[in-house]
Amino acid sequence: MKSKRYSELPGVTISEDDLPPSLRHLLGDFKSWSFMSEMEIEKQLAKLSDSELKALMDRWSPHVDEIERFALAHKDDVPVPDAAAMVQVFTNTMRNVEAEHRLRSSPWRKR
């Protein structure tokens, strides 16, 4: 079976020590939400209730700047450390979650 998440790729090892201390509590989210394809992101978002989606936003939004700073800090490293690559992939999912939340919160959304 093909890996859907970065953290599931062969040879990838990531621990809390690979992340800045202030992001370590998000390691589970990084691993769970580091989807490698837009289709998989959309599939997973469709499974979430509005309240589950909001809970993700509430958990991630206070850390957006630091998440993006960490992801970008290693963009030119060769090789890119696994934790940084995973967080880079995660930032794409995070943007999709934000867009989905805006869409669902829109007054124009059909209910």
Note down, in words, how this protein is organized.
It is a single chain. With 111 residues, this protein is mainly α. It has a domain at 30-37 and 49-106. It has helices at residues 27-32, 38-46, 50-60, 64-73, 82-105. α3 packs across α5 (82-105) and α4 runs antiparallel to α5. It is globular and about 45 Å long. The N and C termini lie far apart (37 Å).
Index terms:
111 residues, mainly alpha, 5 helices, globular
**Quaternary structure type:** single chain
Label the structural class: mainly alpha
- Tell me the total number of β-strands: 0
The percent range for strand residues is under 5%
Note the run of SSEs as H and E: HHHHH
Percent helix: 40-55%
Question: Could you describe the largest sheet, including whether it forms a barrel?
Answer: none
Kindly report the average pLDDT value.
91
Alpha carbon gyration radius: 14 Å
Q: So how many helices?
A: 5
Q: Note the overall shape.
A: globular
Secondary-structure map:
Elements lengths: L26 H6 L5 H9 L3 H11 L3 H10 L8 H24 L6
Helix pairs in contact: 2-5, 3-5, 4-5
Summarize the entry for a quick read.
With 111 residues, the chain is mostly helical.
